[in-house]
Amino acid sequence: MAVPKRSEFVLDKKLLVISLKICTPIIIQQLAVFLGMLIVQGFINGLGNASIGGMTAASRIEAFILLPIQALGNALSIFAGQNIGANEKDRMKQGTRFGITLSIAITALLSMILLFWGKGILGLIIGDNEEMILSGYSYFHVCLWFYPINALIYGLGGVLSGVGDTLIAGIHSLASILVKLFVTVLLIGKLGLLSIAIASCLGWCVANVIVVMRYKGNKWQSKAVVNMIQN
Known about the structure:
Blueprint: H1 13-45, H2 49-85, H3 89-126, H4 130-143, H5 147-162, H6 167-191, H7 193-217, H8 225-230
């Protein structure tokens, strides 16, 4: 077994700076997501037991709906990084188109299942509490039309992070959370749980615009990690 010598443990300042540039936006992204979830949950807790129970079940099912596109986004991140490193931009773009098309198709299918059998699926978690089921389904009835948008967010976001343009991950997450919080505060008193659904969808739309514009702008091509190291 090869054991590194103590003399080999040398701090590479350039590599440290590159690592921080790549990792810091991802850390901000995760902090923003979980902080936003906590704040929104505080609003939901004030809506009563039916809304709390319905939204809790809906959140679990939503996480399952978005899981495939999150996994595909992670796969595209690795795929993009490898191909940019090999200077295969055309292959990266072809793979990106295929991956996002597949993500949209999967999410659209799951959304349609939710549209027709959403109440029954909620019942598997909640039981026969009709008020909670209707509360959770009222959230789904708005959001399921916007789930395919997340295929672009996770897909293109994964590609951008994979090539080294991680700053956009922090930007679109913060923008999405701020929009979600603003709309929730504005409408929660009038629309109740429906305001959470509207806020979520608008937040996704804003994040989608940001990542699509960034990808189409091609500025990410100058953010490749291999270029940072060479420079």
